[in-house]
Amino acid sequence: MSSLRNQDLQAALDDAIARYVRQSPKSKALHDEAVKSLPGGNTRAVLHTDPFPLCVRSGSGYMVTSEDEQNLVNFTGEFTAALYGHSHPVIQGAVRHVLENVGMNVSATTSQEQLFAKGICQRFGVEQVRFTNSGTEANLQALAAARHFTKKRKIVVFGGGYHGSFLGFAGGKPAANNVDVDDWVVVKYNDLDCTARAIRSEGVAAVLVEGMQGAGGCICGTPEFLTCIQETASEAGVLFILDEVMTSRMSANGLAGAQGLNPDLKTFGKWLGGGVAFGAFGGRADIMSAFDPRFPRALPHSGTFNNNTLAMHLGYAGLTKIYTPDVANEFTARGGQFLSRLNQVTEGTKLCFTGCGTVMNAHFPVDGSSVITNAADVTEVQQLKDLFWFEMLESGFWIARRGLVALILETPQAELDRFVSCVEGFISRNKAFVALDQTR
Ligand SMILES: Cc1ncc(COP(=O)(O)O)c(C=O)c1O
User: Would you tell me how many other CB atoms lie within 10 Å of the CB of residue 22?
Assistant: First the structure.
């Protein structure tokens, strides 16, 4: 981009930021107060935005309301966890049932956890499952199981991958807070040769992969790549762990079902908890039996809230009464159509959307490429990405600052149509900035 155009883009962004600051005085005041007791005013780094984050007061249905009285369509969808929105009547009924008839913190096994476990096993084709409090924990436990089962240590993972708070691989290396720093073999996502070589190398216990890298920007694994992982791992005696924390909502049986994959272990989280903290991991019974406490050498697996009554009831109600297999397939197809329309209206510009079904991410690659197979290959025009976020917010859409859109089930088609129009409006207002460079 020429330096003159770059200056104009910065000026447009500065204007958008100034409008945001003017429209959000209460959020600013709350942030100024929050920094006194929370580092950076925040307890979830992903929610920080400059110059200060918008503070949300409440949510209802598919909408949220900011402290500054702005009503927004929640397109962030709690990074895929808010599938049921903010006040789904079935979830509200389940909450009431727990509070009125079951109680919280019963300190015992319950028949409800069996029901929920059976539901998950049947739906996602796993033989046995255990519950945790987060997707992070689910992945840590799955890795422990794989190491125990294979008696090996190394884990093959992928650059741009994210498997939880201590399990990030942005930039192709373990994040500074990563656990077991020495035991990772980090490979380029969608690179078949390097992946096969890494899986066959000495001392590998498991390969842990997202079928679509969510935090990495909704980059989809190609069917060849995922099949290569499955086949190579099986030949090499390495366990194949599919992280379905984000992708289990993509089709009736998750991404594995849609792509015909049969991993040894799967991990779950997000929406499956019905709106409260949740995680689960499961798969082959011979691997999961490591956690059977009837055996003296069982792997310890505890967690005060693993079977908390709220998650067990809300999750089960959502899985069986709301997001039934038919609904999952229909919703995923609806998301796919929306994603295609977005890519139609952005064709020939620097804006493109990647993703699968109802989960997608806006990108502004510097080189204007619209096919992205690896997070590391994309350098984005950050100012454009920021401008897009501010402009969508002004149009009433709450998307994640990194460009993620994760649809809530009850979002009306009219709002999806309106978003497509707003994206068209963004392109026509910012033609000079989103135009592909002729020198390409
Ligand atoms: C693919 C994937 N795995 C694991 C996690 C971690 O889940 P949690 O935030 O519940 O720990 C996430 C969260 O974003 C995720 O996207």
Answer: 9
* Rounded-to-integer distance, Cα 70 and Cα 201, Å: 54
- Rounded CA-CA distance 218/227 in Å is 19
Domain boundaries, the chain: 3-86+325-434, 90-322
How far CA 156 is from CA of 77, 172, 417, in Å, comes to: 30, 12, 41
Q: Which CATH architecture has domain 90-322?
A: 3-Layer(aba) Sandwich (3.40)
pLDDT single digits (tens) 339-387: 999 999 999 999 999 999 999 999 999 999 989 999 888 899 999 999 9
Tens digit of each residue's pLDDT (9 = 90 or more) over 47-74: 999 999 999 999 999 999 999 999 999 9
Helix (H) or strand (E) holding 422: helix 413-429
* Cα distance between residue 406 and residue 77, in whole Å: 5
Rg for the chain, CA atoms, rounded: 22
Which residue's CA lies nearest to atom 8 of ligand 1?
Answer: 135
| Distance of alpha carbon 426 from alpha carbon 420, whole angstroms | 10
Asked whether 233 and 239 are in contact (CB, 8 A), the reply is yes
Residue 309 Cα to chain centre, angstroms: 24
**283-295: per-residue pLDDT in tens?**
999 999 999 999 9
Q: Whose CA is nearest to atom 2 of ligand 1?
A: 163
The strand pair at 239-243 and 404-406 is best described as unpaired
Which residue out of 47, 136, 305 has the highest number of ligand 1 atoms within 8 Å of its CB and is therefore the one to mutate? 136
Ligand 1, pocket-test mutation among 47, 163, 249, 272, most atoms within 8 A of CB: 163
For ligand 1, the distance from its centroid to the CA atom of residue 164, given in whole angstroms, is 5
List helix spans (H) across 157-253. Answer: 192-200, 223-236
Domain 3-86+325-434 sits in CATH at 3.90.1150.10
User: Does the Cβ of 79 fall within 6 Å of ligand 1?
Assistant: yes
